[in-house]
Amino acid sequence: MKTLLKTLTVLALCACILPFAAADASAAKVLKLHHLNQDDPFDNSTGAMATVFKNLVEAGTNGAVKVQTFPNGQLGKDNEVLQQVRAGIIQSGIHSVGGFASLYPMIGIVDVPFAFPNIAVTYSVFDGPFGQKLAADIEAKTGMKVLGFGDSGGFFQLSNSKRPIKSPEDMKGLKIRTMGLDTHKKIIETMGGQPTAIAWAELYTALQTGVADGQMNPIPIIAFAKFNEVQKYLTLTDHLFAPYVWVVNKDFWASLTDEEKVIVQAAARSAIVAGRGLARAIEASERGLPTLSKNMQVNALTAQEKEVFRQATQPTLIAFIEQTYGPEGKEMLDAFLKAIEDASK
């Protein structure tokens, strides 16, 4: 753990101590990068990604490309900022699947519950041929360059204020917050709950006031959002992996030299790795599950309990995805499931 944290520290800060001749500020290309969370490389995945990316890009280009970060949703809601990136008002954004679906609905094909056997397989799938295929389709349909797929914090877990969850019957009557994705709503429905779409900025208050009984998110997000202050029960379901989608404006990308493109892409890859490492560190450190366990009752689903949930959700979601996104969506879904199968061998 200490080694991992030291590695993250080096990734995030090394460029700050590398001497380089600053390019003429007036001639520098400015990349404005928006993300949803705090700009702290040790607090959350996007904070780590943004910090590492900024330092590596500015060092690697000798200051010819400057990165300005805009954390905490400063520039608007996720879907609104996505449109700003597309229009070139800002140059880049790290987006949740919920926000990204407003422009590319077919991102919902990755929302197959209980599809991944472990977190390492998610990396293989989104870094491999399937990730390249998905990125190419996104680029063709949105006109934006995909820099990669980040880790939003690991597998989604369920929290609520009413009772422990061990079966779909325990979900009955619970109002569970979801993103606006129809696939996320369908997942909660098939798990036995009542989906309630609530904006991220409003979620803490909604949980506090009972507008929603619970929510689903990865451990690091539950921890840094302090949902343990307003939720009593945490169930480790590992039922979903929802990546961040990192895009850059096509005209800005075209304005970069070939060398700058290589540097920016490599920096994004390193940043994504740093975000993944931080997410795993937070999960296992005192800032993650151990802290949540101090004032939340935590239970992990057994293999048998997970299988009951899988049977209740997965077939319905696969059919829903095929119906919703048509032949093109089915082809992408088949590629997704095949990639998981291959990576799991």
Automatic annotation (TrEMBL):
Signal peptide range in chain numbering:
1-22
Mention one GO biological process in which this protein takes part, according to its record: transmembrane transport
> Does the keyword Nuclease belong to this entry?
no
Q: Does the keyword Signal apply?
A: yes
Q: Which UniProt keywords apply?
A: Signal, Transport
Q: CDD domains, alphabetically?
A: PBP2_TRAP_SBP_like_6
One GO cellular-component annotation of the UniProt record comes to:
outer membrane-bounded periplasmic space
Return the similarity comment. Answer: Belongs to the bacterial solute-binding protein 7 family.
Q: Return the protein name.
A: TRAP dicarboxylate transporter, DctP subunit
